[in-house]
Amino acid sequence: MAMSCTESTYGNERTLAFDPLVVDGLDEDCMQTVVLPYIKSARNGVEYLGELITKYGSAAGNSVLFGDKDEVWYMEIVTGHHWVAQRIPDDCYAIAANRVSIENVDFTNADYFMWSDGIREFVDAHHLNPDHHGWNFRHIFGTYTEQDRHYNTSRVWYGQKYFNPDIEQDPQDGDLPFIRKANKLITQEDIEFVLGSHYQNTPYDPFGHGTDEEKHMYRPIGLNRTQNAHILQIRNDVDADKAGIMWLCIGGPTFTPFIPFFANMSDTDASFNNTSLTYNQNDAWWYYKSLASLVESHYPQFVQLNIKYLEELNRYYRGRIEEIIANSEGLAGTKLTEYLTSENQKNCQAY
To answer: Which keywords belong to this entry (predicted)?
Structure first.
């Protein structure tokens, strides 16, 4: 099972007027703790969290991802008690950036959509649907603000430009598709690039050659304020007890590596789980934050060295994963957990 709940999402004032957020309701800081240990599938995760939102309410707008070896679901909670979730088709990708993303909801297709009890009646009772036809969750509950155009939609635009370079779109378009099918199969390296991207090969790259206005026009995906980027991988070609890998990047995904952690572990390396509040180069967060700050502030001098460093670590970690899986043959239960925990800690020291 995989669950990610780190994305803030914002409903509009019309919908929040009739279903305000609940001050002491659920928020992203507690969702994983009260949901992930108790669910058996991605679909079950949506159902379980939905029941908790009905009972306790939501303290903020949040978008939550659930994944298992068969399905991926994306859930958007935008008011105190209402939400919609959509299954991402197996051959497609989705990009979301701090605003409501789900579009037309098919209430006759329970295989691909789930929703809060009474949401249609709520919308009808308060005359919230602005469209003559259809039921577009983004149109009804979402925002179309100046901040969206410079902070959010441009990030979706760049991600889709990377995966579908043949499609011409406007970075300020508030109705970019939520789901697309990429021109090619998506690799982990592709995802790492997008998560650390800053509008490369466009006038909007803050490290590029555009005008000063262009370089500061849009918020990039990779940002020095990003404290945690992660890729949650569930492999279908190995046994379930070694299929889950969390690729974790701290300190800024543009300049620092994604480190693999097998999910079947009992502990993390001390450099990750015992971070000092003051500078300590032996702590992973301080080490990688320092690296990112150094490269960003001296970009022309260090960027090529940084690219080479990341490529070398990527090669190392790809090989390590296959080596660890091969060497774990015959291990099960506690023995396997102990082995994977030990190998995770070795991976942490590779920098």
So the answer is: Dipeptidase, Hydrolase, Protease
Q: What is the mean pLDDT of the chain?
A: 97
**Domain locations in the chain as residue ranges:** 2-143, 144-221, 224-348
How far apart, in whole angstroms, are the C-alpha atoms of residue 242 and residue 258?
A: 18
Q: Is 268 left (phi over 0), alpha (psi -120 to 50) or beta?
A: beta
Q: How far apart, in whole angstroms, are the C-alpha atoms of residue 274 and residue 345?
A: 14
- Among 5, 18, 27, which residue's Cα sits nearest to residue 82? 18
Q: List the alpha helices (DSSP H) in the chain.
A: 13-18, 28-35, 42-56, 119-125, 137-141, 146-147, 153-163, 188-195, 212-215, 270-273, 284-297, 299-327, 333-348
- Residue of 30, 46, 32, 125 whose CA lies nearest to 83: 46
Quick: pLDDT tens for 81-129. 999 999 999 999 999 999 999 999 999 999 999 999 999 999 999 999 9
HSE-up (13 A, CA, CB side) for residue 307: 7
AA letter at 220: P
CA distances from 310 to 280, 291, 305, 317 (A): 22, 12, 9, 10
Give pLDDT, residue 227: 87
Strands 2-8 and 244-250, sheet pairing: unpaired
Phi-psi region of 118 (alpha: psi -120 to 50; beta: other; left: phi over 0): left
d(CA 49, CA 64): 10
The yes-or-no verdict on residue 351 having pLDDT over 90 is no
Q: What does the DSSP assignment read for 189-230?
A: HHHHHHHT---TTSTT-TTSSS-HHHHTSS--SS-TT--EEE
Amino acid identity at 227: Q
Residue 316 · residue 309 · CB < 8 Å: no
pTM: 0.95
Tens digit of each residue's pLDDT (9 = 90 or more) over 217-269: 999 999 988 989 999 999 999 999 999 999 999 989 999 999 999 999 999 99
